[in-house]
Amino acid sequence: MKKHLKLYFVMGSVNCLKNPVEVLSEAIDGGITMFQYREKGKGALEGEDKLQLGKKLQSLCNQNNIPFIVNDDINLALELDADGIHIGQEDGDVSKIRKFIGRKILGVSAHDLSEATEAVKTGANYIGVGPMYETKTKLDTNEVAGPDMIRQLRQNNIEIPIVGIGGINQQNLKPVINAGADGVALISAISSLKQPREAASNLIESINDSFVNE
Ligand SMILES: Cc1ncsc1CCOP(=O)(O)O
Ligand SMILES: C=C1C=NC(C)=NC1=N
Ligand SMILES: [Mg+2]
Question: Which residues form the Thiamine phosphate synthase/TenI domain (predicted)?
Fold first, then answer.
């Protein structure tokens, strides 16, 4: 699990400057290690369109042995036979969902020690902690927690794989790794750029450097 979380690209059609299939294809070439289909927000696809795009993105991931995770939508995750699902605190009872999805990857958003402890207890495979920094991508985030939140979780013996998320880019990812995260999850640092391949390549290089000089 930990090695997949290094550069975890999260995206939906709403976030992309160009064709989402092209964006993901380039991001995979650039070196992302895991992908989450998060079709959400104003103008997001629904129903058949959402399913069809999901299938295209999933096949890109399968061809490249990249775990394909669906955000929030359990029915879609099961219909696509995705590798896993990511849910927020408001997306339902984690232990119920664990029974529903069996051995698939279960990611849970956590904003503090109590949510992280709960997620571990109910069988999450990793937690997404944030927002690390200001973000314009998700409008209803909690207040900025910062990398120190990850450091605090590790100091309280939270051993589960952790990915930081929220406003992360090449310039500010090192403190997230140094705080004890196994990787970073991000949207606009790849999806909003003309050259997603170059963006992903620069990011994974900086992430690997951060681990080497930890
Ligand atoms: C999904 C999510 N959860 C917390 S912040 C966020 C948005 C991250 O987007 P960006 O990487 O563009 O800041
Ligand atoms: C809200 C989120 C937090 N963390 C991750 C990895 N994905 C999300 N959608
Ligand atoms: Mg959610």
Answer: 7-190
* 55/33 Cα distance (integer angstroms): 19
CA distance 188 to 23: 11
Structural domain harbouring 153: 2-212
Q: Is 164 in the pocket of ligand 2 (CB under 6 A)?
A: no
> Would you call 38 a catalytic residue per the annotation?
yes
Q: In this predicted model, what pLDDT tens digit does every residue of 113-130 receive, in sequence order?
A: 999 999 999 999 999 999
Asked whether residue 122 is marked as a ligand-binding residue, the answer is no
**Residue 135 annotated as binding?**
yes
Q: Which residues contact 24 (CB under 8 A, 6 or more apart)?
A: 9, 11, 35, 57, 60, 61, 196
ipTM score: 0.97
pLDDT tens digits for range 131-143: 999 999 998 889 9
Domain count across the chain: 1
Closest ligand 2 atom to 71 CA: 9
